[in-house]
Design brief:
Elements: H1 12-15, H2 33-36, E1 44-48, H3 53-62, E2 67-69, E3 73-76, E4 82-85, E5 99-103, H4 109-123, E6 129-133, H5 153-162, E7 171-176, E8 191-196, H6 199-206, E9 215-218, H7 221-234, E10 240-248, E11 251-258, E12 265-273, H8 277-288, E13 293-301, E14 323-326, H9 330-333, E15 343-346, H10 349-355
Parallel strand pairs: 1-2, 1-5, 5-6, 6-7, 7-8, 9-10, 9-12, 12-13, 13-14, 14-15
Antiparallel strand pairs: 3-4, 10-11
Length: about 350
């Protein structure tokens, strides 16, 4: 059977071209924002959900020539239904014919439906292209069913995207460290997934002269297969440790299945944290095996039952020296204590700029 790898893929850095201002069109007039950028680097009109408004403003501050932000009014009528006015349409329509960037956050069902109202309207507004940035894809953990009657919400959310109105080109849905990679194939037709990673943000931290981390650990074989090659390329001398659950009577406990963390300063790497029980057990196994310190990194901080058990301030027994997360899920990370505690929130914005 076929094993195919298509050539011609360039890195994000190779695509980055210098912005050339004051470009004139054939009639001598100024081009639109979307036409300013050459070499494949587009300018964007930004529409944002409430949770990502800070990200929108940071993008504009980072490069006001490339990004323009139009605030949207997210209101409710007295009966609880949505009253929304999208920015950029009045008094002058700055959306029509432009590359539009919608910053999304589907952290609960109410805001998800509200944002789909807006995405639908943008599709019907004669935009040139539409990119939906959804850093954390929350239904990615529910992509299969084990008995009849269960709902694979990853599939239903993908169908909502895939059946949006056609705009001439597929809608790009940019997602970071999707929990199960096969989720990308649920999107089809009018919307296609564009997969990216927050790991480069961690690599930058680990490359600092002040970092003492010198060993990478994974909580299971799946995380190792997915991410280990990134670290072996960046830090070829670092050992890799793989943990996993084994049955001990009626219990399943986390043990080290490969590698030796003795005397090493380890960081556990995974895509997301929910309750974090496995991460804590993995940290305990590393400590018992002689690790000098244990830190952790996840792209997505979910913490449905709270983050306090990871905090040194709230829980002296927390096994983590530093707990790195990105702000892909800002409704959670905006509330994390950072001064004097273990948490360090890495801003996803610079990586997003490169990935666009």
């Amino acid at each position: 059977t076929d094993e195919i790898e298509i050539g011609g893929r360039r890195s994000a850095n190779a695509r980055m071209q210098k912005f050339q201002p004051n470009v004139l069109n054939s009639t001598g007039g100024n081009r639109t924002l979307s036409q300013h950028y050459l070499g494949g680097e587009k300018g964007f009109q930004i529409i944002s959900c409430e949770a990502q408004e800070s990200l929108a403003k940071r993008l504009v501050t980072y490069n006001p020539q490339r990004f323009q932000y139009h605030p949207t009014k997210w209101g409710k009528f007295a009966d609880g239904t949505d009253e929304i006015e999208i920015g950029g349409f009045t008094p002058e329509n700055k959306i029509r014919g432009e590359h539009v960037l919608f910053l999304a956050s589907f952290h609960n069902n109410d805001v998800t439906l509200s944002q789909f109202h807006v995405i639908q309207t943008l599709c019907e507004s004669f935009v040139e292209t539409l990119t939906v940035v959804l850093p954390y894809y929350p239904t990615g953990t529910m992509e299969r069913v084990t008995k009849e009657g269960q709902v694979a919400t990853a599939s239903t959310l993908a169908r909502l995207f895939s059946n949006l109105p056609r705009i001439g080109k597929p809608i790009r849905v940019a997602v970071y460290d999707l929990h199960t990679l096969q989720n990308r194939f649920y999107l089809s037709g009018n919307a296609l997934a564009s997969l990216h990673s927050g790991i480069p943000l961690l690599l930058k931290e680990l490359g600092q002269a002040t970092s003492k981390i010198n060993c990478v650990a994974f909580p299971d074989e799946g995380a190792c297969k997915r991410f280990s090659f990134i670290f072996t390329e960046a830090f070829p001398d670092w050992p890799i440790v793989i943990c996993g659950k084994v049955r001990d009577g009626e219990k399943r406990i986390v043990t080290i299945q490969d590698g030796n963390p003795d005397g090493m300063h380890c960081i556990i790497v995974d895509d997301l944290v929910q309750t974090g029980g496995t991460l804590i057990e993995c940290a305990g196994a590393l400590r018992r095996a002689g690790a000098g310190s244990v830190s952790a990194f996840v792209t997505h901080a979910v913490f449905p039952k709270g983050w306090k058990k990871f905090s040194k301030v709230e829980n002296e027994a927390s096994p983590f020296e530093t707990f790195f997360v990105t702000n892909s899920n800002p409704t959670v990370t905006d509330k994390l204590p950072q001064e004097g505690d273990v948490f360090k929130v890495l801003d996803i914005m610079p990586q997003l700029v490169r990935d666009l």
